[in-house]
Amino acid sequence: MSNDKSGGGSKGGRGGLHVRVKTARKRSVSSTRWLQRQLNDPYVRQAQAEGYRSRAAYKLIELDEKFAFLKKARAVVDLGITPGGWSQVTRKVNPRARIAGIDLLTCEPIEGVTILEMDFMDDKAPDALIEALGSAPDLVMSDMAANTVGHQQTDHLRTIGLAETAADFAIQTLVPGGAFIAKVFAGGADRQLLTMLKHNFTTVKHAKPPASRKGSPELYVIAQGFKGRRGAEAVEKE
């Protein structure tokens, strides 16, 4: 399980000189290209200037600007928290929100955030998250993505699998009116995931924030207005 360590971008901090990176003896051509892209990425520079751990922070900022889900949240679960950019944004936008995050990878401490270093796919993870949070969440957000293998369909299916697991967790734990945000890949959420979300939330939309790189296949699904179990059951009976 991994999340986008390269992060998101901001509307500010653009421009500046283009940096060229020479291929070193011990550095591959692909590594050189990645480094050059990072050095010339305005979102990376802005994240460094504003103290965010990754450019992914700006993806959440831009999604929130459009869908407004952070300020009203009181208890937040951050799935795939490492390196912590999304929780940093949540703390900045809504300092009173309680946050619990989880990731297989180590995440440096964030003030006001409880971090679990464990596999979200572990059967014990859901209960551990709720215990760490201290209540049911009203926002579950996931920037998780499976490690890519370079085959688009396989990568898509693996990430959708994580999104479905995250959605199931959200449906089982969210309070009525809550929201769910998750990364999916090109093609959006698959039919099974969309059906599940539409049964359980009043609105379900896809968005690609400007901070997502143009060549990236990632999209985000935003589900708001959780109906609660009784509400979902009523919809299914109609």
TrEMBL record:
Residues 52-226 form the Ribosomal RNA methyltransferase FtsJ domain. Its EC number is 2.1.1.166. It catalyses: uridine(2552) in 23S rRNA + S-adenosyl-L-methionine = 2'-O-methyluridine(2552) in 23S rRNA + S-adenosyl-L-homocysteine + H(+). S-adenosyl-L-methionine binds at G84, W86, D103, D119, D143. Residues 1-16 have a biased composition (Gly residues). GO terms for cellular component: cytoplasm. Residues 1-22 are annotated as: Disordered. It comes from the Bacteria. The active site is at K183. Belongs to the class I-like SAM-binding methyltransferase superfamily. RNA methyltransferase RlmE family. This is Ribosomal RNA large subunit methyltransferase E. The lineage of its organism: Bacteria, Pseudomonadati, Pseudomonadota, Alphaproteobacteria, Sphingomonadales. The gene is rlmE.
